[in-house]
Fold this protein.
Amino acid sequence: MPLSLSDLFPNTGIGLSDIGFFFGAGASKEAGYPLTDGLTKNVIKRLNSNEYETLMRLFCEEGISYSVDTGTPDIETISDLIYKYKISWGSNQIDELGRTLRMGIVKELINVKNPNLDYHVRFLKALKKLMSGRAESIWIFTTNYDLLFELSAMRAEIPIFNGFEGILGRYFDIERINLCHGTITSDKKFVDYREPNVKLIKLHGSISWFKNGSNVYELCDHESPDESRSMILPRKQKVIDTLEPAFRINPPIRSIFHNPAPTIE
């Protein structure tokens, strides 16, 4: 059944503030990024002979076999196996396999040089038009590592906030996401900018996020092969991993879930 704007936004007459959207892997497919099966196959192809042999040993221990055609078991299952046998075997080969898989995921992402932004730009422009003249925030939650929303916000000319502060190198402070932006009038009153904005929460991290000890920062050089990225690998444990800084949902954001507005998936 087709949906109209009034179906998606039944309360447009009183505003759209704090409506949330959730985007998973499928939202990046048309932009040129692989789905889980394609990502798995491409990452496995990057393994050298020793790493591939180690992975096959893990499959043998579990009584499963890898299908080159379907990319199963997928990268999430493989990550779970590596985590499991890293604890029980404690092998350097397991550690090396885990690092290679992680770097393989990063390389597959940064190899998409000119992603198709059309759908994301259209989505943001439609929101901007719908919210014209209103100092309201739309929340976007995504588990994707790519920069489609960041790049599309530039094209759509809509402010986007993600908890980082700075210019070329940005430090993480989630409280920044709740700051108001505006001007001070001659009589010392604060006036919000009358424009819509997006608050972007990347639940599993980003290819532009890097770690330095316990600190997380964001760099323009997102195509760097540096393996110190702050990204949660695809695995069942990722729900728990999301609770770690810089992924933890802070109290102001958590309040949305206690008093939820509509969330579109």
